[in-house]
Amino acid sequence: MSESLDRLVSARARTWTVWAGRSMIGIGILHVLYFTKKTWPYWAGWMGGDLRGLDVASRGASFSHEGFWALPGGFTATLVLLGLVAIRMAKAGFSLPGYVGWGLGAWAALCSVICEPSGFPLGLVPAVLLVAAHSRNRADATNAMLR
User: Fold this and answer.
1) Model-level pTM?
2) Which of 5, 33, 140, 141 could be joined to 10 by an S-S link, Cβ 3.0–4.6 Å?
3) How far is CA 100 from CA 42, 85, 105, 143, in A?
4) Which one, of 36, 34, 42, 37, lies nearest residue 63 by Cα?
5) Count of domains forming the chain
């Protein structure tokens, strides 16, 4: 892909990318708020080492263990960071690669099928916005080169 296609040439693509980033940050914040309330009683144990050496196969997964993977050990911090990167890149005039939106969408769709009811379908919102922004940007960049 040429360097000109990496630049955001479409104001609409920039706006969609910023909103995708904001939605990822919002989803992450909602996730943290929800699971903080549910896991707060276990935090002292996490810091005290309760999860070190945990043999899930023999003891089974406890809610403390599941809560750890839902909050600090999960994808929430990464989703917020991805949202911040999307916003920063869009404001600097750069496009995210198309695989970011497609990958996020595939992950959200797969997790939605595996675990329902859940908030995973919300992940389709930023995914669709990123795919649409990438497609719009490629189309506008192609049109600009043809002129």
Assistant:
1) 0.83
2) 140
3) 34, 11, 8, 23
4) 42
5) 1
